[in-house]
Specification:
This protein is α+β, with helices and mostly antiparallel strands. It is 30% helix and 40% strand. It has two domains: 119 residues, Impact, N-terminal domain (Ribosomal Protein S5, domain 2, 2-Layer Sandwich); 71 residues, 2-Layer Sandwich (Alpha-Beta Plaits). Belongs to the IMPACT family.
């Protein structure tokens, strides 16, 4: 599965109308809606802020006042054609006084998203089981050795009263089993499933 690594923005002008496309990596509808709201506030003076998103818990699009089917649908089609997931696209339009017609709008919104996709850093993502490992500072060496020897990856480390690692396996190894022999001093809990850049 593919997504974009970082937010990206591109701009095109067609018959005096300005089209600004912003793409954002997003995991779910909640994140998409927050981003759409942020862009709507940022460009509150724009003629239209049209949107399309494909995320873990669904997909959707909105023409935001453009004639039905001329903005959101062409935008989501570009995302699908490029096999992109976990991404939200917003195209902001400032109307330049010349009407583009239905075909012209479809082409303009498609082109706007294609330009941004062309500039994006596209990465492969996979779904991983994320485990939280909690242990004392004195056991860091043991944990780090097990991670190295078992092709695991610590995607997050938090050093507070105890050490908390978020750990994933590159090849679906049983993380609970690996640390099971240390159950008296190392706690292992399944946290969630996450789409992450391929490890």
């Amino acid at each position: 599965m593919k997504t974009i690594k970082n937010p990206v923005q591109s701009e095109i002008n067609i018959k005096k109308s300005q089209f600004i496309c912003a793409l954002y990596p997003t995991k779910n509808k909640k994140e998409s809606k927050e981003i759409i709201q942020m862009v709507n506030q940022k460009y509150s003076d724009a003629t239209h802020n049209c949107t399309a998103y494909i995320v873990g818990d669904g997909e959707g699009f909105d023409d935001d006042g453009e004639p039905g089917g001329t903005a959101g649908k062409p935008m989501i089609n570009v995302l699908r054609k490029n096999e992109l997931h976990n991404v939200t696209a917003v195209v902001t339009r400032y109307f330049g006084g010349i009407k583009l017609g239905a075909g012209g709008l479809v082409r303009a919104y498609s082109k706007s998203v294609m330009e941004a996709v062309g500039q994006a850093d596209i990465v492969e993502i996979e779904e991983y089981d994320v485990y939280e490992i909690i242990f004392e500072y004195s056991d860091i060496k043991i944990v780090d050795t097990e991670i190295r020897n078992n092709s695991l990856e610590a995607i997050e480390k938090d050093y507070s009263d105890k050490v908390h690692y978020q750990v994933v396996s590159k090849d679906n190894r049983d993380i609970e089993k690996i640390f099971g022999k240390y159950s008296n001093k190392i706690s292992v809990n399944f946290k969630n499933k996450q789409f992450l850049e391929k490890i």
